[in-house]
Design a protein that fits this description.
The structure is a single chain. By secondary structure, the chain is of the alpha+beta class. 36% of the residues lie in helices and 19% in strands. β5 and β6 form a beta hairpin. The longest helix has 10 residues. The termini are far apart.
């Protein structure tokens, strides 16, 4: 791209494409905003398949997501926190022996 056109583009202001968002940014910031807008539905960052508003993403990933993992204190295996009955410590320990 010609440097003059590039300079003009970088000086322009862009409004978020989501009607409920009032964000107005320069070109580079507008590109970054698209992936982080709190009012645009985005796929869960842990990969559970749900679409969430950006403002709800942190709460979902911390408390509700079925793909959230932690280390079991008993058998030290990575387990899914929000999948009831999906983990059996005895079976894991037998497998590791």
């Amino acid at each position: 791209m010609h440097r003059r056109m590039k300079q003009d583009l970088q000086e322009m202001k862009f409004k978020c494409s989501n009607e409920s968002c009032e964000s107005i940014n320069c070109y580079k910031e507008a590109i970054d905003h698209i992936t982080k807008c709190d009012r645009i539905i985005q796929p869960c960052r842990l990969g559970c398949g749900l679409g969430l508003l950006g403002k709800d993403m942190e709460f979902h990933c911390d408390t509700q997501c079925s793909e959230k993992k932690t280390v079991c204190e008993t058998c030290e295996e990575n387990i899914h926190v929000n999948r009831a009955g999906a983990h059996d410590c005895m079976a894991t320990m037998k497998k590791n022996l």
